[in-house]
Specification:
426 residues, single chain, binds 4'-deoxy-4'-aminopyridoxal-5'-phosphate, PyrdxlP-dep_Trfase, Aspartate aminotransferase family protein, PyrdxlP-dep_Trfase_small, alpha/beta, transferase, pyridoxal phosphate binding, Aspartate Aminotransferase, domain 1
Length: 426
């Protein structure tokens, strides 16, 4: 039976891969193909993908597949030879960034991009201290994991790490959050400097995805960026999650807040699934680094990755995916608000474009409903809707769909959510 096959696969998996590879769901999903916002198992059952932000222009988008195939059949080398694709793409991408951010370097993962960004910031400022939020995730290299508290207790934080609280607008309100976070940043910088660590920079994902999704109202983060600059540090915008049209109102997450960072890192959705990430930076900051340290990354910026990234950008523009993220995201939020009327356990709904968090708290006590939220996700999976949770208590339903999500997809998600809430008696 397929259950026996499943069990056999799990044993093979553990034997070959060890215990570190975690699967989603008690009854794991095995998918074999995908298109748009839908993926299919071997029996042809279709699942709605409300989780994957890497394939943000849709699973196996034909324009991207064609560009990858064409370039793979022609040539794939590295950045030691002249090649048109990297130049064309870099010029297009720089045009999307603020004028001051005028150089771009390529990596293969978000972790590597943040790793390089921290090294560049330290080199420029002469400091070592990096400040992140309480539940941040910025990657898995030795350096960056020390600034990724969400990895958990087993991971030692860097002695040069300062922690900001989660910008919890549910707790502090939308209006107060900018001043509150700027004050906390100043406190952390002072603490850091008191122990002899000079502040080098603030590293922030402006949607605060692993903290529990707290985009807040546009503009508030500028106060925090200004405070970082006033203290002589750099602002590193980790755009791995909010970048590339995700928030619906701007191409970049920081752009919603009306300030210019010093370094911008990006990855995940950049090439729709082909390994491709980047660190964009002001030329004076980069020059100070490259004058001392050569940087080469074998696979980064290779012609296939650049062809994929370029085709991904074409689709974002041609299909107005920023507009779609804005429109479908707004529709999603209003339907969730409708559902919340009948379900008082929905304590807060917050989102920007197609990145939405739904906060489940016990209506009687206000306690986070961690167990129930996990059960909810299992129920949604049985209805073949793939979604997840996040936040320090795991009580935030995480809705992060491909950017091609349609109104019909929202309906299907909402039906599965309403049915699952009813089934759980929530
Ligand atoms: N920054 C953020 C905000 C992320 O969410 C992630 C990945 N979840 C990373 C960096 C690391 O990216 P990668 O897994 O590609 O190394």
């Amino acid at each position: 039976s397929s259950l026996d096959e499943h069990k056999r696969d799990m044993v093979r998996r553990r034997a070959a891969l060890g215990n570190g590879y975690r699967l989603f769901y008690r009854d794991p999903v095995e998918i074999v193909r995908g298109t748009g916002s839908h993926v299919f198992d071997e029996q042809g059952n279709d699942y709605l993908d409300a989780y994957n932000n890497v394939v943000s222009v849709g699973h196996c988008h034909p324009h991207v597949v064609e560009a990858i195939s064409r370039q793979a059949a022609l040539l794939n080398t590295h950045t030691r030879y002249l090649h048109e694709t990297i130049l064309d793409y870099s010029e297009r991408l720089l045009a999307k960034l603020p004028e001051d951010i005028d150089r771009i370097t390529y990596q293969c993962t978000g972790s590597e991009a943040n790793d390089l960004a921290i090294r560049i910031a330290r080199n420029y400022t002469g400091g070592r201290g990096i400040i992140v939020t309480n539940e941040a995730y910025h990657g898995n290299t030795d350096l960056v994991s020390g600034f990724s508290p969400s990895i958990g207790m087993g991971q030692e934080l860097s002695p040069d790490c300062g922690l900001l609280p989660t910008p919890d607008t549910h707790l502090h309100g939308d209006e107060a959050i900018g001043d509150y976070m700027a004050a906390k940043l100043n406190e952390q910088i002072a603490l850091m400097e008191a122990r002899g660590v000079k502040f080098a920079g603030l590293l922030v994902d402006s949607i605060f995805s692993s903290d529990g999704i707290f985009p807040g109202k546009p503009g508030w983060l500028k106060k925090v960026a200004d405070a970082a600059h006033a203290a002589g540090g750099l602002y590193i915008a980790d755009e791995v999650q909010p970048g590339f049209c995700r928030t619906g109102d701007a191409f970049w997450g920081f752009e919603r807040h009306g300030f210019v960072p010093d370094i911008v890192t990006m990855g995940k959705p950049m090439a729709n699934g082909i390994a491709c990430s980047a660190t964009a930076v002001r030329h004076d900051i980069l020059d100070a680094f490259t004058a001392r340290i050569p940087y080469f990354n074998t696979f980064a910026g290779n012609p296939v990755a650049m062809a994929a990234a370029s085709a991904t950008l074409d689709v974002m523009e041609n299909e107005d995916l920023m507009g779609n993220a804005r429109r479908i995201g707004a529709m999603f939020v209003s339907q969730l608000e409708g559902l919340a009327v009948e379900h008082p356990c929905i304590a807060d709904i917050r989102g920007a474009g197609l990145y939405i968090g739904v906060d489940f708290d016990d209506p009687a006590t206000g306690d986070p409903m961690s167990v129930e939220t996990l059960e909810l996700i299992e129920h949604m999976r049985r209805r073949r809707v793939l979604t997840s949770n996040c936040g320090s208590f795991g009580n935030i339903l995480k809705i992060r769909t491909p950017l091609v999500f349609s109104a019909a997809d929202v309906d299907r998600y909402m039906t599965a959510l309403a049915d699952s809430l009813d089934a759980l008696g929530l």
